[in-house]
Amino acid sequence: xxxxxxxxxxxxLPPKSQTFSWVxxxxxxxxxxxxxxxxxxxxxxxxxxxxxxxxxxxxxxxxMYTFEDRGxxxxxxxxxxxxxxxxxxxxxxxxxxxLPVKVYYSGAYFRAERPQAGRYRQxxxxxxxxxxxxxxxxxxxMIAMADSAFRSLGLSNFTLxxxxxxxxxxxxxxxxxxxKFIAKLDLDEATRxxxxxxxxxxxxxxxxxxxxxxxxxxxxxxxxxxESAEHFAQVQELLTALGIKFEINPRMVxxxxxxxxxxxxxxxxxLGAQSGIGGGGxxxxxxxxxxxxxxxxxxxxxxxxxxxxxxxxxxxxxAPTTSDLFLIPLGVESKARVLQLAxxxxxxxLIVEVAYGDKSLKSAMKQADKSxxxxxxxVGESELSAGSVEVxxxxxxxxxxxxxxxxxxxxxxx
Length: 414
Prior knowledge:
The protein is α+β, with helices and mostly antiparallel strands. The chain has two domains: 16-167 and 225-314, BirA Bifunctional Protein, domain 2, CATH 3.30.930; 325-412, Rossmann fold. The chain has helices spanning 16-32, 47-51, 58-61, 82-91, 136-152, 168-183, 189-197, 208-213, 226-241, 286-289, 304-314, 332-347, 361-371, 381-386, 407-412; strands spanning 37-38, 44-46, 66-68, 74-77, 101-110, 122-131, 158-164, 247-248, 260-268, 276-282, 297-303, 325-329, 352-354, 375-379, 388-393, 399-403. The strands form three sheets. An eight-stranded mixed sheet has the order 1-5-6-11-10-9-7-8, sandwiched between helices. Strands 13-12-14-15-16 form a five-stranded mixed sheet, sandwiched between helices. A three-stranded antiparallel sheet has the order 2-4-3. α12 links the parallel β12 (325-329) and β13 (352-354). α1 (16-32) packs antiparallel against α5 (136-152), α1 (16-32) packs across α11 (304-314) and α5 (136-152) packs parallel to α9. The longest helix has 17 residues, at 16-32.
């Protein structure tokens, strides 16, 4: 039987795995430079952690991988990162110290949805959370950090879209009129039940007939309280001061129900239907909802898979890293010395490969060509006796005689 990966998972093999690693590292570097610290979190949590914060969303109601463990507990593979990060902050008392708590994390997430380009059942994301401050400047920092993360990859063909989902008073006032509007629509039973749980969900419906029907629906931005409107205005002013361009999208709804206040998404213009490459927002009330203090927070998730697709679309995938040197031992006696040389050169920061097996010189050179190493060197008895090797530049074919003791110095200048 030939085994294959389950349908809908994203796998990364060389050389694409280099791009995958580079994207995650770039995201982490930018986030870390803003003072956020890494947390490593489990890939599964108690199911209730997710069900109590998003029952009306497709993510929670239809797309979670949930199972019962041997102890009879309901466990779910994490479909997103925020609530797991907040659970860890609460459990380990990080919110009892200096605020805001600023953490980031990365890893695989799981959603049982229909696989398509840019949408996987196992996908990768890097997320960040700042918990314990309502300062609009923190919103601006979070958004600017995500913008910098994407630009650090060389991406440029994307737009930042923003809105505000307001405070509880804003949403309550808007809900009254929105419910009245929806009541006049001709909806199927399932859609009407979904709207009853959270009428904002209809703004997120992908069906054209629903999108058309909701085009004239009341906009939450028109119902913002004075405090919410001032907060959102300050965020916009700060982003403008930072030189970050944005568009206001009053009908934006994120995939989970816990968002409040400032909400944002980065949309890439070359990815078709799955154009969102990252986003997030405020979640005032979420900490309290899952058993923590009644303090606010803001966070985002940056899609690694989507970022790679965006790099491919823009033609900006970085060239793969290749080996610096491919060493070819000739004869049994030279193998030990070649392994020593390889270890010494690797310790100096070089990427070194060694030809294994009793290959002929011709076969070993073919292997060196396939490896795409920048240089190769044959090490046999004569080279060991002379204490030097001919280092061949693979691209030009030019060779340079280098003493074995000076190999590190030779490559330091290349």
